[in-house]
Amino acid sequence: MTEERTPLETKIEVGKLNVWFGEHRALRDISFSAATKTATSLIGPGGCGKTTLLRALNRMHDLNPDARVQGSVKIDGAEMLGPGVDTSRLRRVVGMIFSAPTMLPGTVADNIAFGLAARGVRNKQTLAQACERALRRIALWEQVGRTLQAQAATLPLDLQKRVSIARAIAIEPEILLIDDPTAGLDPVAALAVEDVLARLRRDHTLIIATNDLQQAARLADVTMFMSGGEIVEKGETPLLFNKPGDLRTEAFLAGAPPKS
Amino acid sequence: MAMKAIAVPKPRDTLQQSVLPWLLGVCVAILAASAIIIGGWLAINGLTSLLAAVLSWTSSGVWRPLTATLFITLLALPIAALVGGLAAGALADERIFGAGVRAMRRWLTLLGSIPTIVIASAIVVVAGAIGWQPTLTGASLAVAIASMPLMTALAASVIGSSASPVGEAAIALGASPAVVVLRVLLPRAGLRFGGAITLGATNMIGGAAVVAIAAGALAQGSSGQDPIGAWPLAVQLWLHAPVVSQYGATAAGALVLTMLLWLVQGFGLLRATPTTSTESR
Lengths: 260, 281
Prior knowledge:
The complex is a heterodimer of chains A (260) and B (281).
Chain A: E1 10-21, E2 24-35, E3 39-43, H1 50-57, E4 67-75, E5 78-79, H2 87-93, E6 94-97, H3 108-112, H4 114-118, H5 124-137, H6 141-144, H7 157-170, E7 175-179, H8 187-200, E8 205-209, H9 213-219, E9 222-227, E10 230-236, H10 237-242, H11 247-253
Parallel strand pairs in A: 3-8, 3-9, 6-7, 7-8
Antiparallel strand pairs in A: 1-2, 1-4, 4-5, 9-10
Helix pairs in contact in A: 5-7
Chain B: H1 12-44, H2 46-55, H3 63-92, H4 94-97, H5 100-113, H6 116-129, H7 136-159, H8 165-171, H9 177-220, H10 236-240, H11 243-271
């Protein structure tokens, strides 16, 4: 029997998280929590640590020998930064969609089924079904279903972006980390991607780093404003946008240049 | 009304398609010139020499040094390519060997930058000093070992690493190091991997020729002792042939083999189809 989760159940809890790259301290005592099946957006000026924070949550910094991570990241109450954690398994629970939609070698179908194939699933029917399910969930089946055998790298950028989303959700992660989802897209393509993300809110806990304030306002239940590697302010999105409690947040939302 | 022409930058693939036939043409021309020079050399040395060179295995023929060089290359290449390819694959993901991989890559690049000819000669000299009896098999192993750093460095440069965007994309989907290397980085390297091996092979041919010459010199200095060993083709030529002929024939053989490899690589590139999107990012 599976346990029913209430919408406000804490999914991810971050405590006193610090990240260093060599001597440079990129994140400073980051603490926050996100509830199950909610969308949290990270906003802030370029270089404030949004992407660094996302990558710390699924331990992508492990790939960088110069990076050092301290603090706590708990998912469903279990610590994820400890030495005995299976990082491959962690990344299947905490999926990630990168800013640039890098396509893997092979066809569109190969790309979408990659996560399952990497986990050892060999049954072609199972992979095909997972592929179709992922594409239907983001309303891309009609558009891409007939070109599953096309080389993924030959698709237009906006389709690559959506295929990378399908690829991430095909492994059915519980949490999705999304880095600047509409970077480089024209407004029409950006809205299509945003529509896809809105659908995903129902089934996943989303943490979205974005440079588009309107997008954050449209998509997120909770918004966090970051600056200089720390969280300046966090609150429910309408409240934070309409009545920011910190002058730095207010200045950023008003479009004022950040103070050096 | 005439429309003003808009200058469109030439796509890279198109440029490659237009330049490659010219490069191949140059290769073919050099190959043809080599054939003429070799043929001329044989003609100048008389019909007897020509026939002896082509039809028999006499000391003044070209076939023995050429075959010796070819033999060393063919035996050494799979060993060096296999070890180099596997090592490059292992170096591609820092999760396999840890952070020490970076230092290993630097050392390999440094070692790989030393010409194979130098390392191979050093191996032969040291081996001679400790009483090694030259054989083709031994020379092949020396060349294979000498070529491994370069092969690894070349293969590593085309395979890339897991820290690349494509590697990270796979890792973020929960892929293990082996899956990242075998299912992402190697297939992505594709033809470029073959190109790297070809480059290593062309370098190896020079080393093989020099090792063959050095092996012959060692054999000549071995006071009549039969140095043949397991592969008699190794030094028979050097025991009896004039030194100038050895150098000329071996160099010509090396040149011919190198050109053939370039041709194979060039045709491979021409047949390659672009797999990346031309969409700007």
